[in-house]
Amino acid sequence: MTAIPTKTLETTKQIFAGLTKDTFEHRNQSEYIQFATRGLTEALVRKISYTKHEPDWMLTMRLAGLRTFFEKPLPTWGADLSKLDFAEIIYYATPDMPDSSRGGRATPDEVTPTKSWDDVQPDIKATFERLGIPAAERTVLAGVGAQYESSVVYHRLRDQWEKLGVIFEDMDVAVQRYPDIVQQYFMNKCVPIDDHKFAALHAAVWSGGTFLYVPAGVKIDMPLQAYFRMNAKNMGQFEHTLMIIEAGAEAHYIEGCSAPKYGSNSLHAGCVEIFVKPKAHFRYSSVENWSKDTYNLNTKRAIVGADARMEWVGGNMGSQVTMLYPCSILQGPRAHAEHLGIAFAGADQVQDTGAKVIHSAPDTTSSVIMKSLSKAGGRSVYRGLLTITPRARGAVAKVKCDALLLDDHSRSDTIPDMNVHNADVTISHEATVGKIGEDEVFYLMSRGLTEQEAHAMVVNGFIEPIVKALPLEYAVEMNRLIELEMEGSVG
Fold first, then answer.
1. Helices (H), ranges, 131-247
2. Residue 468 φ/ψ region, left for φ over 0, alpha for ψ in the -120 to 50 degree band, beta for the rest
3. Which carries the bigger pLDDT value, residue 243 or residue 443?
């Protein structure tokens, strides 16, 4: 990526350094919710499709997803989901399109989000300003999408990339403008609708999200970003992300997420499908900071072609329960995948995260590095799957999991699953768990730091391999979020 000028970097550091808990806990009035439907029915699914002017094939897929969702049981492994009441969730609400939220039908033009922040509803615009999104767009981003509840309210790509044929759109708009491309890839090659219960749910009620197409050989040297914000009580968000990186192209996409706390459950079940064609390079970074009310049950998967490279960088904080395992399917010879992740589990939180890598071609390589922190009785789990198929001779894979416990009440588990069907491979796995050492804290305090500062410095060193993979300005954001989670962890 292009180096960021010092003045620009300092500006973005100020943007993210100013984040506080109030930034994420702030909520807007949500009168539109009185017009929304709670619970999941065929009538609701048909209404969503009708409202969006979708083609018949998309409605057919939604209805198939609905049937599959009702047929499939909840997972019997992982975090406890028994308290998630699907009948209380609001699956579709669009405050930026009042007529459609009351049951009417939007025109295709109304489905298209604005390209000017001045046209965004003032209270919604103020929310994204507090989160630093417009300011970051002006300084370091090639394009931005902003979703609020079920609809994308703002989406824009810089002209220089449009001229090169890059398509960066709201997913609803992509269905209208690029139906042939979307139908070719949408939930039929990467994440099928019957993959699991929450993939089926997503297929039934998905709304908003991001469509990215990068033509062959085009290299975008600035990150693209989308930010997903839930505002109302009991809201569900189900954005769909579809990205196609053609041969020899390069891009970096950053996703941010947040929601205020109400004391009753919210649900996030998005889906990410990425296609990295031969010799292409793509990085997908995610900073997720859902509220402690949220069940974060996301599905992310990439298919990686010959000599291509896929990188996942993720931070998971907030949320009552997270079950998230980004997956790379190394389909072409010499394909490579890297998974870097941080999970932070606080009081009454379960962060069940990890990675899946499937080596299905010769000479493929992968690296998984996962870090977790647990405090105040929180539980972090690394759950990983590594599969080496008979065709993957010469594959090289390494997995490294490190856990840091910040007190005597928290817990960390490592659950690796390795299926190796070829003897001509090299595989390594390493897992460690530890606490912040008294000697380390004493040494740092003897150099003038407070106990809280000493703990923070140790934590920053622990997570540094993950944070440094982000652009510098987003590394500042990640560190700030960790600082907010660390408050009160000493004493």
1. 133-140, 159-162, 171-177, 179-185, 197-205
2. alpha
3. 243
Q: Report, in angstroms and rounded to the nearest whole number, the Rg of the chain calculated over CA atoms.
A: 22
Q: d(Cα 225, Cα 395) in Å, to the nearest integer?
A: 33
The strand pair at 240-245 and 350-359 is best described as: unpaired
Q: How far apart are CA 288 and CA 57, in angstroms?
A: 32
Take residue 265 and report the two structure tokens written for it. Answer: 């459950």
**Within 10 A of 383 (CB to CB), how many other CB atoms are there?**
20
Other beta carbons less than 10 A from residue 309's beta carbon? 18
C-beta separation of 429 from 417 below 8 A: no
Which of these ranges, 7-11, 27-31, 355-359, has the smallest mean pLDDT?
7-11
Q: Taking Cα atoms as reference points, which of 347, 319, 452, 345 lies closest to residue 404?
A: 345
Residue 72 tokens, joined: 């499939």
Q: What percent of the chain has pLDDT over 70?
A: 90
150: Cα within 13 Å, side-chain hemisphere = 27
Which residues are 339's β-sheet partners? 312, 368
pLDDT digit string, tens, across residues 59-106: 999 999 999 999 999 999 999 999 999 999 999 998 754 444 444 555
Please give the Cα distance from 335 to 304 (Å, whole number): 6
3-state secondary structure of 419: strand
Q: Are 100 and 433 in contact (CB under 8 A)?
A: no
Phi and psi of 92, rounded to 5°?
A: -155, 120
Alpha-carbon torsion 358, 272, 134, 230, what sign? negative
Give the C-alpha separation, 412 to 3, whole Å.
Answer: 38
Say how far apart CA 67 and CA 63 lie, in whole Å. 6
pTM of the model: 0.91
Per DSSP, what are the bridge partners of residue 323?
Answer: 352
- Say which amino acid occupies 469: A
Q: How far apart are CA 381 and CA 375, in angstroms?
A: 13
DSSP state, residue 90: B
Spell out a b/e string for 208-224, using b for 16 or more CB atoms within 10 Å of the CB, else e: bbbbbbbeeebebebbb
Locate the DSSP E strands across 143-239: 143-148, 151-157, 167-170, 209-214, 224-229, 236-237
- 307, 301 in Cβ contact below 8 A? no
